[in-house]
Amino acid sequence: MPCATLRVNGREHTAEAPAGMTLLEFLHDRLQLPGVRAGCEEGTCGACTVLVGGRATRACMITAAACEGKPFTTLKGLARNGGMHPVQQAFLRHASLLCGFCTPGAVLEAVVLIEDETRPLTHRRIRQALGGHVCHCGMHHRIVAAVEKADRRMGRLK
Ligand code: FES
Ligand code: FES
Predict the structure, then answer these.
(1) What is the number of domains present in the chain?
(2) Which of 31, 63, 101, 110 is 20 to 30 Å from 155 at the Cα level?
(3) Atom of ligand 1 nearest to the CA of 40
């Protein structure tokens, strides 16, 4: 059985990866990483989003083998000095999420958005960037508010 070695949150992990195994299956099923969600598995819900080389990427849409040698970040890897990332803190305080199933993917997408865009982010820009993240609990407006708060906080810290 072929194996893949991926660098996730600063640590190398090696596991069996048959041809065609998706990055999502590798992270979720093989490595059983907390904070990696398997949703639609067809690229539409955003639940499986991880950062690949700093870009928000749907893990169900690429193979594990294609990702060897690239650095990955999952929700767990966002922690700073043992504490939560400002975007995680904002989601906790302002998003009032229910089941939290959509949260890891939305948080990671928001981190990239805030780091890449000029400030301040508008509601429209946030909705556009996170529009592909389905929240079955209907918390989209609260997610937008949380990203706006995080954007302001991170803008002050930079
Ligand atoms: S599980 Fe990958 S986009 Fe839904
Ligand atoms: S809080 Fe339940 S799917 Fe978003």
Answers:
(1) 2
(2) 101
(3) 4
Please tell me whether residues 94 and 152 are part of one structural domain. Answer: yes
pTM: 0.93
Note the ligand closest to the C-alpha atom of 101. 2
3-class SS at 14? strand
Ligand 2 binding pocket includes 139 (Cβ within 6 Å): yes
C-beta of residue 131 within 8 angstroms of C-beta of residue 78: no
Of 46, 77, 108, which closes a domain? 77
Proximal ligand: closest to the CA of 107: 2
Looking at all shown ligands, the one closest to residue 57's CA atom is: 1
Q: 29 and 93: one domain? A: no
Decide: 48 in ligand 2 pocket, CB within 6 A: no
If asked whether residues 54 and 93 sit together in one domain, one would say: no
Q: Give the range of the structural domain holding residue 144, as residue numbers without chain letter.
A: 86-157
* Each residue's pLDDT tens digit, 6-55: 999 999 999 999 999 999 999 999 999 888 999 999 999 999 999 998 89
Residue 18, preceding peptide bond in cis (omega within 30° of 0): no
Kindly report the protein residue whose alpha carbon is nearest to atom 3 of ligand 1. 43
The DSSP line for 81-102 is TTB--HHHHHIIIII--SS-TT
Does 69 lie in the same domain as 8?
A: yes
